[in-house]
Specification:
Blueprint: E1 2-3, E2 12-20, E3 26-34, E4 40-47, H1 56-68, E5 72-77, H2 99-115, E6 120-129, H3 131-142, E7 149-153, H4 170-182, H5 187-190, H6 194-204, H7 209-214, E8 233-238, H8 244-251, E9 258-263, H9 274-286, E10 298-302, E11 305-309, E12 317-323, E13 329-330, E14 340-342, H10 369-373, E15 376-379, E16 387-391, E17 394-399, E18 407-415, E19 421-430, E20 440-444, E21 448-452, E22 457-463, E23 479-493, E24 518-520, E25 529-534, E26 539-544, E27 550-553, E28 559-571, E29 574-590, E30 595-607, E31 611-622, E32 625-637
Parallel strand pairs: 4-5, 4-6, 6-7, 7-8, 8-9, 9-10
Antiparallel strand pairs: 1-2, 2-3, 3-5, 10-11, 12-23, 13-15, 14-23, 15-22, 16-21, 16-23, 17-20, 17-23, 18-19, 18-22, 24-27, 25-26, 26-28, 27-28, 28-29, 29-30, 30-31, 31-32
Helix pairs in contact: 2-3
Length: about 650
């Protein structure tokens, strides 16, 4: 199949392929490449995202664009996902607990296959977003001689929550991924063998979150990508995405060339950056002087404008220290005790916003005044001049020695003269237990780029809980800190740093029109985020429902209907009352052939003082009849229990 792309240097073709692995498994792939007799460089995207439905729209825009500029673009479904054979990696025995170990091993075989194709020049780049970005970094570390460059957008490379146990993202993502792994192959692409493949897939499934929950120690999980780039890497993320600190970390990782862009985007690969990725491919895969290494090492969006840093760490950014008993002060009750007690109500954190912002209206954290009122705040005087932040703030706290293990949460806010409190960044730490020899606790906040205007105040807000982002500490006692031995360190960028610098900017490319996708919105859409306070029960309940739910009819006739509801509840003074639940359902239909399957997954989590208690449920139906159902019960020890 071919179609003209007159605005690009090449016409392109698209074809579906089967890639054989050494164990007999076949991976399904889709290839876009330029119409030319000469071998060309290749870009590989290896993902669990199902190329015939879930990622089809983005694939149909980006890969033909790359192909039109002279690249063979191969999009491969991971083992056990989409129409690929085998069992989903890391979902059960004998597969390892970390799916990335299998993904990178399979990916290495795909690289070998790709390099031997007659249409490939042998020069290969890796592309990935989110989990696929993590896989790209892992694969580059596994096979650096076969990979010439990487482009990673919002790579999932660790939660960076200081050992605190995540609640908002852990079970939601695990529930969705279980549902993704449980989806059947599509009979339009694999034929009648889909039912056998589906049954094999379903019988192998295991929830992945118990291992992640048990290993929530703040240290890199097994199979985590190295913190250093091993091949030339172009990394991009949006401020507010969990990956932004890791993207900054790649910049200072060593002699391998790295460039990064941090902008005002949700999770994903923004169109504006695609021309920059093409320059990256041209330089490393074609040996073309595209100017890719003449750009600033870091380009970042700071309060309405683009800035550029020629090196990272930047000589224009220096650490400024703010003592909590000097430049920042609390308005706490006077006491002879030098320690300030922080003990927050358990619903502190309800206005945190989405853990992974996807561009929905309810994703961004609202005015923080309610959260500030549930925290102990240290405020500066109104600033005499703007304060520009770029980098990773940190907080060193002297905690009361007699305190046991607990949760420390820090938020940095920009407070306007009218009292509006805007979240700048935040961080968390599972404080060391009593008797720990270290006298100080260090909280690393997420990377930020923000300008605090003159006349505004800085506010450091400390709390002992942050629900539903983090599981609360079993004991509601909170913690005490000594302000005279506690310091906030901010990365402050020189206000004249942009003087004489070349302007920085991006422009969206002209991408191919995606195949038409008909979307049917629900008749009665749920609110994206709804919070209810039951005053009589002292209970707070929050319900989340993604705006992207609804029915989608794909050009090839597939009808996909998807719905997710996540709910959290907690009692104001009872940390062990915390509960979380996610219900996820997806229905796939091909009316022309009478194919109709539905997947329901549900995860429920609660806690005791010593354990997390998890219940996971999966039901698969064909034409309304249950063909598979399974429940999992997990009892996972809490840290230090």
């Amino acid at each position: 199949m071919s179609h003209p792309t007159p605005s690009y240097p090449f016409r392109t073709t698209r074809e579906d392929l089967r890639i054989p692995l050494s164990d007999g498994t076949e991976l399904r792939a889709r290839l876009w490449r330029p119409v030319t007799d000469a071998p060309v460089p290749a870009v590989l995207e290896y993902s669990a995202g199902r190329l015939t439905d879930w990622t089809a729209t983005d694939d149909a825009r980006r890969h033909p664009w790359y192909a039109g500029h002279g690249y063979a673009c191969l999009r491969v479904d991971a083992r056990g996902h989409g129409n690929s054979g085998g069992r989903p990696a890391g979902t059960g025995e004998p597969a390892p607990a970390d799916p990335s170990a299998v993904d990178s091993a399979d990916g290495a075989e795909v690289l070998t296959w790709l390099a031997t194709q007659p249409w490939c020049s042998g020069r290969i780049g890796l592309l990935g977003t989110g989990a696929a970005g993590r896989t790209a970094l892992l694969l580059a570390a596994r096979a650096p001689d076969a990979v010439h460059a990487v482009v990673a957008a919002c790579p999932e490379v660790g939660d960076r929550l200081g050992g605190a146990v995540p609640a908002a993202d852990l079970h939601v993502r695990a529930t969705a991924r279980l549902a993704d792994a449980a989806r059947p192959p599509d009979p339009q692409y694999v034929g009648d063998d889909w039912a056998r493949m589906w049954r094999e897939r379903l019988e192998s499934l295991e929830p992945s979150f118990p291992q992640r929950l048990a290993a929530a120690t703040g240290q890199p999980a097994p199979g985590e990508p190295p913190g250093t780039a091993v091949v030339p890497t172009f990394a991009v993320a949006g401020w507010g995405d969990p990956s932004c600190s890791a993207v900054l970390g790649l910049l200072s990782s060593g002699p391998v060339p790295v460039r990064a862009v941090l902008g005002p985007w949700p999770h994903g690969l923004p169109d504006e950056v695609l021309p920059e990725t093409l320059r990256w491919w041209d330089h490393w895969l074609r040996d073309v002087d595209s100017g890719a290494l003449k750009t600033p090492v870091l380009r970042s969006w700071i309060s309405g404008r683009w800035t550029g840093e020629e090196a990272w760490p930047s000589p224009d950014v220096r650490d400024i220290h703010y003592g909590l008993d000097g430049p920042l002060r609390t308005a706490g009750t006077a006491s002879d005790d030098r320690y300030v007690q922080v003990r927050s109500p358990q619903h502190t954190g309800l206005n945190a916003g989405a853990y992974v912002p996807l561009g929905r209206p309810a994703d961004l954290p609202p005015d923080q005044r309610e959260e500030d009122g549930r925290s102990v705040c240290f405020d500066s005087l109104p600033l005499p001049e703007p304060l520009e932040l770029l980098g990773v703030p940190s907080l060193q706290l002297r905690l009361r020695p007699s305190a046991g293990a607990g949760l420390v949460v820090a938020r940095l806010c920009d407070v306007a003269p009218d009292g509006t409190s805007a979240l700048v960044t935040r961080g968390a730490l599972a404080a060391p237990p009593a008797g720990d020899p270290a006298p100080d606790a260090v909280v690393e906040l997420a990377a930020t780029g923000h300008t605090v205007p003159a006349g505004h105040r800085l506010r450091l807000a400390l709390s002992s809980t942050y629900w539903p982002w983090l599981w609360p500490d079993p004991e509601p006692a909170g913690f005490g800190l000594d302000p005279s031995h506690s310091t906030l360190t901010l990365p402050v960028r020189h206000l004249a740093a942009d003087s004489g610098a070349e302007p920085v900017g991006f422009a969206s490319p002209t991408l191919p029109l995606p195949p038409p996708l008909h979307i049917t919105e629900p008749l009665t859409a749920r609110p994206e985020r709804l919070t209810v306070h039951d005053i009589g029960r002292h209970e707070w309940r929050t319900e989340l429902s993604p705006a992207g739910d609804g029915t989608r009819t794909h050009p090839d006739g597939l009808v996909r209907d998807e719905h997710t509801v996540t709910a959290y509840r907690i009692l104001t003074g009872a940390p062990l009352s915390a509960q979380a639940r996610t219900d996820h359902s997806v229905r796939l239909e091909r009316p022309a052939i009478g194919w109709d399957v539905t997947i329901h997954t549900r995860t429920e989590l609660r806690c005791t003082a010593t354990h997390f208690l998890a219940h996971t449920h999966l039901t698969a139906l064909e034409a309304g009849t249950t063909v598979f159902t399974r429940d999992w019960q997990h009892r996972i020890p809490r840290k230090g229990a």
